[in-house]
Design goal:
This protein is α/β, with parallel strands linked by helices. The chain has helices spanning about 45-50, 75-80, 95-105, 115-120, 120-125, 135-150, 170, and strands at about 5-15, 15-30, 30-35, 60-65, 65, 80-85, 155-160, 175-180, 190-195, 200-205. It contains 7 helices and 10 strands. Helix 3 runs parallel beside helix 6. The radius of gyration is 16 Å and the shape is globular. This is ATP-binding cassette domain-containing protein.
């Protein structure tokens, strides 16, 4: 099967310091991957580099067999590569529904609409006119995931998610999910452990469906 995302020997950093070094990861349709590491291990830098918010120093990023290493972030999003950033970064002065609609900008064509997001997270429908600043932590994350889904991604990157319970349904529908966490989440098919910017990958056979 062709990879949705293929990262090869990717390095990135800040000045002379390298936050990630020669990272290689291959993600196929419907897979759930975990990027596991402690604070400062390079998890956020890796995800931000993949979506184009941080420049790559070396290596390549391929999406659906197209080299996107130097492509602008909005074009990567339009292809179907989306990130839920750490701390979610919702617009707190906007309502939940307005935040969701922001996610559709530069999005790819596809099935995700407001009604589908509300079906996945019914409590967001009740809070759709509430300001994002008033949400609980779990509601905040749900709104951030929903905003990313509104772009109709083929692969969803999640930086430090607190709850992955609803996302099993997404992988069953063919969406690839990559979550950066401190501990291995339930359901992860491939585990990539980052230590000082270098990755070690293992595959959990029982969880990898084919």
């Amino acid at each position: 099967m062709n990879a949705v995302l293929e990262v090869t020997a990717l390095s990135a950093g800040y000045g002379a310091a390298r936050a990630i070094r020669a990272v290689t990861i291959r993600v196929e349709q419907g897979e759930h991957h975990a990027i596991v590491g402690g604070p400062g291990s390079g998890k956020s830098t890796l995800l931000r580099t993949v979506v184009g918010l941080h420049p790559a120093a070396n290596g390549t990023i391929r999406f659906n067999d197209t080299d996107i290493t130097r492509e602008r972030p909005e074009w990567r999003k339009a292809r179907g590569l989306c990130l839920m950033p750490q701390n979610h970064r919702l617009f707190t002065s906007l309502t939940v529904e307005e935040n969701l609609l922001v996610g559709a900008r530069w999005g790819a064509p596809g099935p995700w609409t407001l009604s589908r997001v509300y079906e996945l997270y019914p409590y967001l429908l009740e809070k759709r006119r509430a300001l994002a600043a008033s949400l609980t932590l779990s509601e905040h994350q749900a709104a951030a995931v929903g905003r990313a889904l509104m772009a109709n991604p083929r692969i969803l990157l999640l930086d430090a998610p607190a709850d992955l319970a609803a996302l099993g349904r997404l992988t069953k529908e063919g969406l690839a999910v990559v979550a950066a966490t401190r501990e291995v989440p339930a359901g992860a098919c491939h585990v990539h452990r980052l230590i000082d910017g270098t990755v070690t990958t293992t595959r959990t056979e029982v969880r990898c469906r084919r």
